[in-house]
Design goal:
- This protein is an alpha+beta fold.
- It has a single domain, classed as Nucleoside Triphosphate Pyrophosphohydrolase.
- Helix content is 21%, strand content 28%.
- It has 5 helices and 9 strands.
- The strands form 2 sheets. Strands 1, 2, 5, 6, 7 and 8 form a 6-stranded mixed β-sheet that branches.
- A hairpin with a 7-residue loop joins strand 3 and strand 4.
Length: 188
């Protein structure tokens, strides 16, 4: 069941933006264990419902249909797991979830230079993230996007197979890498 403030999200999945085929090499995600200080440390969350669909939110700060899984930065003296639970609560209003898997490696992705300048004053060129697969234990009605700084203006559950088509171009390879990081959970 979709949960959204806009019925069009529930009724008609939107097409990805035109001209967003394969991401250019500088936007490709990579998988590595190196800790490059030019990447913002963060976490990503693949939140699954009981049917195996993934929570995705539509970005509130971007025009158009830009969807993503919850993610965020790691605060000082915070473990990646602690950051994941905090970010989940901040972004969707609940952290009623169980961690079922954690990526064994950090996954990196670059962002367009304009985005890096605007979002981070050019401090980072992308993000390095630990990813967590979590099982949502609550009810859809527990999800509340109206936090202090809402990141999403709509949400829904989507099949894993739709993630890359719905993501912004520079996160598509990252999402493929995330799925590949958990082969025992996501099989063909």
């Amino acid at each position: 069941m979709a949960g959204s403030r806009t019925s069009s999200v529930r009724d008609k999945p939107q097409s990805p933006p035109s001209g967003t085929g394969v991401a250019s090499p500088e936007w490709q995600a990579s998988v590595t264990d190196d800790r490059d200080s030019s990447y913002r440390p963060g976490i990503g969350i693949m939140l699954l419902n009981a049917q195996g669909d993934v929570f995705i939110g539509r970005r509130a700060d971007v025009q158009g249909e830009v969807w993503q899984m919850p993610q965020g930065g790691i605060d000082d003296r915070e473990s990646p797991r602690e950051a994941a639970m905090r970010e989940l609560k901040e972004e969707i209003g609940t952290n009623n979830a169980e961690v079922i898997a954690e990526s064994g490696r950090w996954l990196y992705y670059n962002v367009p230079e304009e985005f890096a300048r605007k979002a981070w004053a050019g401090r980072w060129k992308g993000q390095r993230q630990k990813w967590f697969v979590m099982l949502f234990k609550g009810a859809d009605s527990d999800i509340d996007l109206e936090g202090n700084h809402p990141e999403f203006n709509a949400w829904r559950w989507a099949p894993v197979s739709e993630l890359t088509a719905l993501a912004v171009s520079f996160k598509r390879q990252l999402y493929l890498d995330v799925i590949g990081e958990f082969p025992t959970i996501f099989r063909d």
